[in-house]
Write a structure and sequence with these properties.
It is a single chain. The longest helix has 19 residues, at 58-76. The protein is globular and about 45 Å long. The chain has a single domain, classed as Rossmann fold. The chain has a 7-stranded mixed β-sheet, sandwiched between helices. The protein has helices spanning 18-21, 24-32, 58-76, 96-110, 127-142, 156-162, 189-197, 203-213; strands at 8-13, 36-43, 80-86, 114-118, 148-153, 181-184, 219-226. The chain has 227 residues and is an alpha/beta fold. It contains 8 helices and 7 strands. The two termini are 13 Å apart. α3 (58-76) packs antiparallel against α7 and α4 (96-110) packs across α5.
Length: 227
């Protein structure tokens, strides 16, 4: 397919770090082309289980992770970051219309022509990711001025490396011949790594991902829908 050239992109993610650990290289690439990038984070990431038995409260952690995302976004070239303050780990059928309404308010003001989010399988299987992907898909389908939807997907090789222990169900992902865009982010790889490191509370995950996936992180895969 012919790769769409957006003018403005709104990236919609469930948690702080989803932008850097996911399509960070592509976000930096779009920003380098002068494309206006805005980011919406639906939660503050304040329910991270690795802190549940520690001295950091959920409220404190939420503040920490907001600052980390703002640092990451600056590294990637994002123009604005908006937090919707929904409860981490609680995105579901009871609040999806509320989430959609809040996102719509922001994108109507920005008048974006494109959206970027995780694929509807949640990429890692996290149910918050799945909810946000479905909500973003709904907005794309029902908003006339939005012409492109970029779904970040997981390379199927990563599933083989990580196994099935991360969440209850870890999606299989896609091979490179099953996607619309295999993006070599080598020129932006250092930027992606720097953005990942900005999430200091998540360095344990950073080192795990960096060790497991290595050079695979230099390619970001996408399925793309255009109207």
């Amino acid at each position: 397919m012919v790769l769409p050239i957006p003018k403005k992109i709104v990236c919609v993610f469930a948690h702080p770090d989803d932008e850097a650990f996911g399509p960070g290289g592509t976000i930096a690439y779009f920003a380098s082309k002068g494309i206006e990038i805005h980011l919406i984070c639906v939660t503050n990431g304040d329910a991270d289980p690795q802190f549940s038995k520690g001295k950091v409260s959920g409220r404190q952690l939420g503040k920490i992770r907001r600052l980390e995302l703002q640092s990451s976004a600056k590294i990637l070239g994002v123009k604005s970051v908006t937090f919707l303050d929904f409860k981490d780990g609680n995105l579901n059928n009871n609040n999806y219309h509320d989430v959609i309404n809040e996102i719509n308010k922001i994108i109507d003001n920005i008048n974006s022509d494109s959206l970027l989010t995780y694929y509807i399988d949640g990429v890692s299987g996290h149910l918050d990711h799945v909810a946000v992907a479905m909500e973003t898909s709904y907005i794309f389908e029902h908003t006339k001025y939005i012409k492109n939807l970029f779904y970040f997907v997981q390379n199927s090789t990563m599933k083989k490396l990580i196994g099935s222990k991360y969440f209850v169900y870890h999606p299989t992902g896609f091979s490179k011949d099953e996607v619309d865009w295999v993006h070599d982010i080598s020129p932006f790889f250092k930027t992606k790594i720097d953005a990942m490191k900005a999430h200091k509370s998540q360095l344990k995950d950073f080192f795990l991902i960096r060790t497991l996936f290595g050079k695979l992180l230099k390619e970001e895969l996408f399925k793309i829908i255009s109207k």
